[in-house]
């Protein structure tokens, strides 16, 4: 199969396949997109909107518009190209630093939000069914005690 025909892995699938996350159920995107299932989570998660966009693999909206850059450039005289270049460089550097720090906060917020969504999902009918299938498959291991007879945990 060629690499162009392969479908990119979703954030949810990638998150659940990480080491230490094997007990998470893959929550369906329909469940995540339903506003009722997200009630009250906005106040608990920093950068909620961005975290939700990350979970759903939606391209984030750019809050910092290029129009502001153009307005700043128009304020400078045409003769001051060096100043304009330096200002553009500083602006680009600030944006890069902000994006790097925001990305780590967004990732941790997305992980927290997914955990809270997962908590609600596994109490739903689909979630209980998915967790029961994992239990039946022995996904959670077996009791190490001798008299348990390798009972599923």
Q: How would the blueprint of this fold be written?
A:
Elements: H1 11-16, H2 29-33, H3 48-55, H4 66-75, H5 81-121, H6 125-136
Helix pairs in contact: 3-5
Brief rundown of the structure:
This protein has 153 residues and is mainly alpha-helical. It has helices spanning 11-16, 29-33, 48-55, 66-75, 81-121, 125-136.
Detailed description of the structure:
- There is one protein chain.
- The protein is mainly alpha-helical and 153 residues long.
- The protein has helices at residues 11-16, 29-33, 48-55, 66-75, 81-121, 125-136.
Task: Please state the CA-atom Rg, rounded to the nearest Å.
Answer: 23 Å
**Whole-number total of structural domains:** 1
Return the string of H and E elements.
HHHHHH
- Relative strand content: under 5%
Strand count, sense and barrel status of the largest sheet are: none
Helix content: 40-55%
At CATH level 3, the topology is: protein kinase ck2 holoenzyme, chain C, domain 1
Indicate the overall shape: elongated
Low-confidence stretches: 64-73
Instruction: Tell me which CATH architecture applies here.
Output: Orthogonal Bundle
Specify the oligomeric state.
Answer: single chain
Separation of termini? 39 Å
CATH level-4 homologous superfamily? protein kinase ck2 holoenzyme, chain C, domain 1
The residue-averaged pLDDT reads 80
Per DSSP E runs of 2 or more residues, the count of β-strands stands at 0
């Amino acid at each position: 199969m060629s690499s162009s025909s392969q479908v990119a892995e979703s954030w949810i699938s990638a998150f659940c396949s990480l080491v230490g996350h094997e007990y998470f159920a893959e929550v369906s995107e329909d469940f995540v997109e339903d506003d009722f299932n997200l009630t009250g989570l906005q106040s608990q998660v920093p950068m909620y909107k961005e975290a939700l966009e990350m979970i759903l693999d939606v391209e984030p909206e750019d809050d910092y518009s290029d129009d502001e850059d153009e307005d700043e450039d128009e304020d400078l005289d045409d003769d001051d190209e060096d100043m304009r270049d330096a200002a553009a460089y500083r602006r680009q550097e600030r944006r890069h630093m902000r994006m790097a720090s925001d990305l780590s906060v967004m990732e941790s917020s997305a992980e927290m939000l997914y955990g809270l969504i997962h908590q609600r999902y596994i109490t739903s009918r689909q979630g209980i069914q998915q967790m029961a299938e994992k239990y039946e498959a022995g996904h959670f291991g077996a009791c190490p005690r001798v008299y348990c007879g390798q009972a599923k945990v």
